[in-house]
Amino acid sequence: MTRKLELVICNSSPVIGLASLGLVHLLWELFEQVLVTQAVYNEVVQQGLNRPGKEELETAVKQGNIRIYTVKEELLINRYIGKLHRGELEVIVAAKELNAKYILIDDKAARVLAEAMLLEPTGLIGFLILAKFSDKIESLKVCLDKLIENNYRVSKKIYQDVLIAVNERV
């Protein structure tokens, strides 16, 4: 069995993507602590009626597998609101406040800001690669195909590069 990583803070799209695959449980199987911010929770659970992730996140929080974190520093959020969504900003600020090494965030602009703040963001696909190398999923191709079927945007180049990287047939 592989050792769990310490802490991850998740934005909404990776949670929704994992829910569409039935794989939200991989978050707490791979990490000791899984956090979402209040804005992410609100987006997925309160605004996510009839979408994947609502029930899964609500249940995971009730069962204590995922905790909700309330950010303390509003200044940075207020500075960038409008350029990024509040949930993305809260994830970045929470990572800084908690000195988190891992954040799951898909939006390119949010990842650029996170990197500028010396964080190392990864997205849903990066998380699925970790799950594959940790023997938590058998086929990354099956996951990617299902995500694409569910309107998750994956470029052909990333699709091919990722499958080659994990030694799966394109």
Count, helices = 10
Main sheet?
5 strands, parallel
> Which series of helices and strands comes N to C?
EHHEHHEHHEHEHHH
Low-confidence stretches: none
Mean pLDDT: 93
Rough shape?
globular
Proportion of strand residues: 5-15%
Number of strands: 5
Q: Which structural class should the secondary elements be placed in?
A: alpha/beta
> Helix share of residues?
40-55%
Explained architecture:
By secondary structure, this protein is an alpha/beta fold. It has 10 helices and 5 strands; from the N terminus they run βααβααβααβαβααα. A 5-stranded parallel beta sheet has the order 3-2-1-4-5. Helix 3 (38-46) packs across helix 4 (54-62) and helix 3 packs antiparallel against helix 6. 41% of the residues are buried. The mean pLDDT is 93.
Which properties best describe this structure?
12% strand; alpha/beta; 170 residues; globular; single chain; five-stranded parallel sheet
SSE order and pairing:
Layout (H helix, E strand, L loop, with lengths): L4 E6 L1 H10 L4 H5 E7 H9 L7 H9 L4 E3 L5 H6 L5 H13 L3 E3 L3 H9 L4 E2 L1 H10 L6 H10 L6 H10 L5
Helix pairs in contact: 3-4, 3-6
Provide a concise account of the structure shown.
It is built from ten helices and five strands. The chain has 170 residues and is α/β, with parallel strands linked by helices. 41% of the residues are buried.
